[in-house]
Write a structure and sequence with these properties.
heterodimer, A: alpha+beta, 15-stranded mixed sheet, 8 helices, 19 strands, elongated, B: mainly beta, 4-stranded mixed sheet, 3 helices
Chain lengths: 298, 286
């Protein structure tokens, strides 16, 4: 298969099960809502070292937020409900509660719950109050700019993490441009985040390492500088490979984002020197979800 | 098909206890079984059919017609369906009600909504003393649901109320929210003092145009506050507010007093529209 002269390799990208939640962060204006969301989703690129993967999903219009203020929806993914709750409480406590004028609300309904205001309320030192409105409990914590409002808990659900595709280009500049185009398209897809910086990882990894302590290490088969000394998977003329990683609430969400991203990256394939799109295939060792690139693009 | 209708005579001389005569209890019963249901008259058991006429109809709605001012515990035990009362009711309206809806075209007696735990109760007329308050022998009053009083409300509204929302369109008599534990009161008309004595927690929204921003004894002086949660609360109660009050969006600044500090309470009284309020108010009165 080819798109605008770019070869789409007949392979699949592997992804694995995660658990996820969505939060709605509101503030006096969009500037502060975004500052809080950016802080909260910082250092959340990979569960390997960050405990969770998080990112901004979309902006939420004031008429769709609980308190009628501008909002930002963020998605947080982790490997277990317990770890997810730990990360959510810690990150909201340090990055949203601290940010001027913000409030935080559940962005997902589910029987499985993740604590939010029920833990954060203790910052109020006994001056906090709860309000049950329309069947939802909100905690009002006095802070020096007024009140921090946090919904008692948010829902969580099973999700898919680690969906991916790799962009192989004749130059690093071309690979970057292709990925930027892909990101612009993928950010329009609901229910997904791309947790790495700018949505792209240059540290594509393989499962395992020569060092026993590491579960993942550099994907030497795609490192251009190692081409002469490893069993390289890079075609001739490729000077850089970048990996786009996607976490989504459902398999179909990840597939939609992959399709949008690949198509956008290939749109100006010649201009970017794009040679090939491939997937992170680890022989089935990484996860149960397999996204076959040809099927995703069909 | 018409709803199941129970018609009471206009000359009832006894006090009837109608607890349990609710759609969720009548759903699978034949008309004769309904007529033989046990109720209490002057605290003695008797059959429902001896005191009223039962007209068959669909069971998810119950219409009560006639003079029910001597009927207590109307809607008692309701958890689904709807009850429409074509007139006034006696005491203890909606006792232990957990869901569904009650519409009263007339007024309600004492302790209306005292045992309310969920659902919506709409009283078109006035309401007697102790509405939503702790009933004799109970430690807590209303514990959930929505109570809308479109007329005036007598004394001791929401005494020891625990949870839920009350909206009063007319005048609220003295001693409202005494020892209130939690919940929300939206008072749209004049409010007589004393108010909120020993209030522990909860919210009183003063929405009436004629309400002056004066805090009751034991409360802090009203101060400007910006409360982002208020829009959530306003959105929740907006469908129950009188037509004369139209809130397009919450004003950015309101007045708020905390108390009753005599017992270290953190209850709050919020004035959304007073002559002291921010010029850019969005609360419009027709």
């Amino acid at each position: 298969m080819q798109i605008n002269g770019v070869e789409i390799e007949d392979t699949f990208a592997e992804a694995f099960p995660m658990t996820a939640t969505r939060l709605i962060i509101t503030a006096a204006d969009r500037f502060w809502a975004r500052r809080a969301a950016e802080a909260m989703t910082g250092f959340a690129t990979s569960v390997i070292g960050c405990g969770c993967e998080a990112g901004i999903e979309t902006e939420v219009e004031p008429n769709k937020t609980p308190d009628g203020r501008p909002g930002i929806a963020v998605l947080v993914f982790s490997m277990s409900g317990k770890e997810l709750e730990k990360q959510v409480v810690r990150r909201v406590g340090q990055c949203v509660l601290t940010c001027p004028s913000t409030s935080v609300f559940a962005g997902m309904d589910s029987e499985k719950r993740v604590a939010l205001g029920s833990h954060l309320r203790y910052f109020g030192d006994g001056f906090q109050t709860a309000k049950l409105i329309g069947g939802r409990r909100y905690w009002r914590v006095p802070v020096v700019d007024g009140e921090f409002v946090a919904e008692e808990s948010t829902g969580r659900r099973d999700a898919v993490g680690g969906g991916n595709f790799l962009v192989l280009s004749q130059s690093l500049a071309g690979a970057l441009k292709a990925c930027e185009s892909a990101m612009d398209a993928m950010r329009q897809v609901p229910n997904v985040i791309m947790p790495f910086p700018g949505g792209v990882a240059r540290s594509g990894s393989k499962v395992g390492s020569k060092y026993k302590a590491l579960g993942a290490s550099t994907n030497d088969a795609f490192c251009p500088t190692l081409r002469p000394i490893t069993q390289s998977l890079l075609p001739q003329g490729v000077a850089a490979a970048l990996e786009v990683v996607i976490d989504g609430l459902e398999e179909i969400d990840v597939a939609r984002a992959m399709r949008a991203g690949i198509q956008a990256a290939c749109e100006f394939g010649d201009r970017y020197g794009l040679k090939r799109i491939t997937g992170g295939n680890y022989g089935g060792k990484l996860g149960k979800y397999h996204f076959h690139l040809h099927q995703v693009l069909a | 098909m018409k709803p199941l209708t129970i018609r009471f005579p206009s000359t009832a001389s006894h006090r009837l206890n109608l607890f349990g005569i609710v759609p969720n209890q009548l759903g699978d019963q034949a008309l004769t079984e309904i007529q033989q249901l046990t109720i209490e008259v002057n605290d003695r058991p008797t059959q429902l059919g001896n005191h009223c006429e039962v007209i068959d109809g669909v069971r998810d709605e119950l219409v009560l017609e006639g003079d029910l001012s001597g009927c207590d515990y109307v809607g008692g035990g309701l958890n689904s369906g709807r009850i429409s009362v074509d007139g006034s009711v006696g005491d203890f309206l909606a006792d232990r009600m957990t869901g569904g809806r009650i519409e009263v075209a007339g007024s309600a007696g004492r302790f209306a909504g005292s045992g309310l735990r969920g659902g919506i109760v709409n009283i078109a007329g006035d309401c007697g003393e102790y509405a939503a308050s702790a009933a004799p022998g109970a430690t807590r009053g209303m514990n959930g649901g929505v109570l809308v009083i479109r007329g005036n409300c007598d004394q001791w509204l929401a005494t020891r109320m625990r949870r839920g929302t009350i909206i009063v369109h007319g005048r609220t008599a003295a001693a409202c929210a005494t020892r209130m534990i939690a919940g929300t009161l939206a008072l749209c008309g004049p409010v007589d003092f004393p108010l909120a004595a020993n209030m522990a927690r909860g919210t009183i929204l003063m929405l009436g145009h004629q309400v002056v921003c004066t805090a009751p004894p034991g409360f802090t002086d009203p101060e400007h506050s910006e409360l982002s949660f208020l829009q959530i609360l306003i959105n929740d109660i907006a469908p129950y507010l009188p037509d004369r009050i139209r809130i397009e969006r919450t004003p950015p600044v309101v007045f708020r007093a905390l108390g009753d500090r005599v017992n270290r309470g953190l209850g709050e009284i919020i004035w959304i529209n007073t002559r002291f309020n921010h010029a850019d108010t969005h609360l419009a009165h027709a």
